[in-house]
Amino acid sequence: MSYPVLIKSAAPRSALGGGKTRAQGDRSFLAKSVILMLCFVLVATIMFSLAAGASDASIVSLVGALFTGIDSPADALSLRDRIIIYDIRLPRVILGALIGASLAVSGAVMQGLFRNPLADPGIVGVSAGAGLGAVSMIVLGGTFLAPLIALFGFYALPLAAFFGALAFTLILYRVATRRGQTSIATMLLAGIALGAMAGAYMGVLVYIADDRQLRDLTFWGLGSLAGANWVKIAAAGPFIVSALLISPFLARGLNGLALGEAAASHLGIPVQRFKRIAIVVVAGATGASVAVSGGIGFVGVVVPHLLRLMIGPDHRYLLPAAALLGASLLLLADAVSRTIVAPSELPIGIVTAAVGAPFFLWILLRRRGILDL
Amino acid sequence: MIEVSDISVSLGKKKIVENASFNAEAAQFTVIVGPNGSGKTTLMRALSGDLPFTGRIAINGFAINRLKLWQMAAMRAILPQSTQLSFPFTVREIVKLGLISGRSGAARREAEDLPDEALALVDLAGFGGRFYQELSGGEQQRVQLARVLCQVWHPLLDGQPRFLFLDEPVSSLDIKHQLIIMQIARAFAKRGGGVIAILHDLNLTAMYADRVVVMHGGRIDSVGTPAEVLTDERIQRVYECALKVGALPATQVPFILPQSAAL
């Protein structure tokens, strides 16, 4: 059906919608191809991470071990190698992939929610909130929070981090968003204030911590996958996996939200309910990641930004691609952190910050015009 | 039909719209005019369901505060004054967002090409691959109109008329594109849909509107055809400006009226 138009437009209308050629500006095929490619990249990265390390357990014997299982008589793999792979490398790789995916996806969701490519849980204080929750649980777990630990077991730490992250995200949203519009300046300044606040409270908690707790805190705070084990996966996994599984359902709403809250609701998106779900997803993924690995910065801002440059900001493709690329990049960063100062290892947070912070500055440089406050 | 019965809207403590009542029929182009600050945009935001109000607003007999957002999205589409984006969407991706509500009324095969057809309609054929943020303000406004048209592509759905709400749709456009947009609105009404637009241009209003709603100081001053409503007395009173309808300027002063395009 066409509209009668008295004034003819100069542009020809014949080039439209013909045959199988993809329409201009339609990047969905490109996005799907990139996602498929990222699947292969992730598989390759996982194999590489399982094989790389101080021990020489090889990739061939490793694959054999994966198929035959630990109890079968496999000559190719010694008991020592099996222990290295099943109890050290495998949990570390799984945890690294989960956390990388969760950091990248929570970054992408938060950026979509705030309509701002700089909104990363690490930068705007949400990770600090999660950290405050985790530190409170570590230090006060022996005192009045003890019933919580008795009740929730190893879930107590990620739960505390989750509620810390949730509280800080809600505060941030309330402060930075007014009548459906988010102020970039207010958001970043509120993030600084929240970070400082969390830092101060954590300082007090560190001050009253005993020696054993201090040791726990130090290991936790370095931002590392070094302590990965199956218990940590069991504790953080459910939060991260739920967040990752819910995120695709947010894609349509995040796309609509790019037009602003009013326009999104005019398109039929239940904006208020949608925002609440998105905030819980961000808090869950960030809280669980921070609880088991401390602060690993910049994955959440670098990965979505790179992908938007490659495949565009359509969240239906951006979110799965971010999960895949985030997982791969964090595994690579972990491989670097394990090998660069071998036989010792560097906390992974140092690696991601060393690469991510200059990248963040580069984004700022490119977007200065838009960001002028 | 859109029925507005005795609605009042307050922002904070200030009453912006008071006791407004009018009907906007399907198959008609209704234009809201009035000076700055007379409550036009606030009225439209209430119609859109963005602001709380007292009184009753109904679309096709359904009170809008009883409708779900997705139900309203199938009945009407809204063009905002301007839309800023913070992510690098292409023009086509933006137009395609109009299909989110899922009730364009177009068949599945037709829907594939809808963004391109809508872009051609607003004279932006071939712009699909450009980045929205790189376009001029007027081009961005037309991209948004293409998106809004996708949302309610067929003016009738299940036998019910659908509506376009346009808030100053031609404010940043050159004269050619002003006329194109007005013709799109007119054609939408001709095919059975309803259009409500806020306009500042009284000449375009006189040329295209079926009915004119004049707002003044938060109240509805009058409703009627352009010939009934656009009188010397009313325009002088509402706009506080000594204007005469139909007075020609001195012979040496050029004047260009949109009506001349149709001649």
From TrEMBL, chain A:
It is found in: Cell membrane. InterPro entries: ABC_BtuC-like, ABC_transptr_permease_BtuC. GO terms for biological process: siderophore-iron import into cell. One of its GO terms (molecular function) is transmembrane transporter activity. Keywords: Cell membrane, Membrane, Transmembrane, Transmembrane helix, Transport. Pfam families: FecCD (PF01032). This is Iron ABC transporter. It comes from Phyllobacterium sophorae.
From TrEMBL, chain B:
Residues 2-242 form the ABC transporter domain. It comes from the Bacteria. CDD domains: ABC_Iron-Siderophores_B12_Hemin. InterPro entries: AAA+_ATPase, ABC_transporter-like_ATP-bd, ABC_transporter-like_CS, P-loop_NTPase. Signal peptide: none annotated. Keywords: ATP-binding, Nucleotide-binding, Translocase, Transport. PROSITE patterns: ABC_TRANSPORTER_1, ABC_TRANSPORTER_2. One of its GO terms (molecular function) is ATP binding. Belongs to the ABC transporter superfamily. NCBIfam families: PRK13548.1. Part of the ABC transporter complex HmuTUV involved in hemin import. Responsible for energy coupling to the transport system. This is Heme ABC transporter ATP-binding protein. It comes from Phyllobacterium sophorae.
